[in-house]
Amino acid sequence: MQTYICLLRGINLSGKNLIKMDALKQLFLNLGYQNVSTYIQSGNVIFKSKSTDVLKLQSEIHEKINEDFDLNIPILIISKQELESALANNIFVSNRSEDALKLHVTFLSQQPLAVDIAQIMQGSHGDDEFIIVGKCIYLFCPHGYGNTKLTNTFFEKKLKVSCTIRNWKTVNELNRLSFI
């Protein structure tokens, strides 16, 4: 059995796209997944599956959410190994020891093209910094994520890939929960 983390984008924000975590957990159980747990209300689900086809899992979960909740929610599934890699490769932590409250990880649906990465690196982003490593973008927002222009929408438009963001505390907690 593989351990996966499903990251739902844009649920339970400002009273929109509401899904209760117990209902979301039940949806995953109904799909036959095992060891299902959720973390906070923003749509983080840890689960185990025999399947190794991540795209099939994403499609199945997306369709079931649409069917059960009438919501077209973007989702991204990463493996436990991808999560561990994301934790290990954040140079804002390993090389600079930045304040964890100012750190975020944007998970990408696929690795962006080099030409798109080159274009995005040329722009000015104020005090905010980011580093792209594989399918992750590590963000350092010294004035808080609420004040940055380096949002999901920005990265999706510039890199032409789907993405979702989590703060550093959540990434660490998802990793801890994936061992349970």
Structure, described:
The chain has 180 residues and is α+β, with helices and mostly antiparallel strands. The chain folds into two domains: 2-81, SP0830-like domains (Alpha-Beta Plaits, 2-Layer Sandwich), CATH 3.30.70; 83-177, Alpha-Beta Plaits (2-Layer Sandwich), CATH 3.30.70.1260. It contains seven helices and eight strands. It has helices at 21-30, 54-69, 80-88, 91-94, 114-122, 152-159, 168-177, and strands at 2-8, 34-39, 44-49, 75-79, 103-108, 129-133, 136-140, 163-167. The strands form two sheets. It has a four-stranded antiparallel sheet, sandwiched between helices. A four-stranded antiparallel sheet has the order 6-7-5-8. α3 (80-88) packs across α7 (168-177). The model has no long low-confidence stretch (mean pLDDT 93).
Search tags:
single chain; 180 residues; alpha+beta; Alpha-Beta Plaits; 4-stranded antiparallel sheet; 7 helices; 8 strands
Give a quick summary of the entry.
The chain is α+β, with helices and mostly antiparallel strands.
What is the topological layout?
Blueprint (H helix, E strand, L loop, with lengths): L1 E7 L12 H10 L3 E6 L4 E6 L4 H16 L5 E5 H9 L2 H4 L8 E6 L5 H9 L6 E5 L2 E5 L11 H8 L3 E5 H10 L3
Antiparallel strand pairs: 1-3, 1-4, 2-3, 5-7, 5-8, 6-7
Helix pairs in contact: 3-7
* Cα-to-Cα separation, first versus last residue: 14 Å
Main sheet summary: 4 strands, antiparallel
CATH architecture of the largest domain: 2-Layer Sandwich
- Gyration radius, rounded: 16 Å
Count the DSSP helices: 7
Encode the helix/strand succession as letters.
EHEEHEHHEHEEHEH
